[in-house]
Amino acid sequence: MNETMVCVVGNVATQPVCRELSTGSSARFRLAVTSRYWDREKNEWTDGHTNFFTVWARRTLAANVASSVALGDPVVVQGRLKVRTEQRDGQSWASADVDAVTIGHDLSRGTSAFRRTPRGETPADRSPSQPEPNWETLPPGGPLDPAAELRPEPAGVT
Fold this sequence. Notes:
This protein is mainly β. The chain has helices at residues 59-68, 123-126; strands at residues 2-12, 17-21, 24-39, 44-58, 74-88, 91-105.
């Protein structure tokens, strides 16, 4: 497994799910990142390929994600990128996870209001439990990922 620090800008593709574990709070969601490029022939900006990342948040960050981030929100995520490949049933599978250090709304595309979290508050105090989504990454050439039908606003990876 390869690991490197990244800053990723994209749209939240699945509703964040927060859980209380023995090690503390944990939240995750899928992030859709679509590159854009200038098409000289058409003389306009064009959407490129969309990549999906699973974003993981821990402890206080997880609780704050559960209260602040929703499906479709444009966000900036900084953290450690972990890319894994494996073989399952003769198919090659790849997944890209970001172990988030910081998550925030992309203020170039809207506004946000910051509220400091009171000490000692838990995610259970702020949001009801949510069902667990399907987090599988489909192999190339497999059936379409339902999240791929979302048309996120174009964003880039830096």
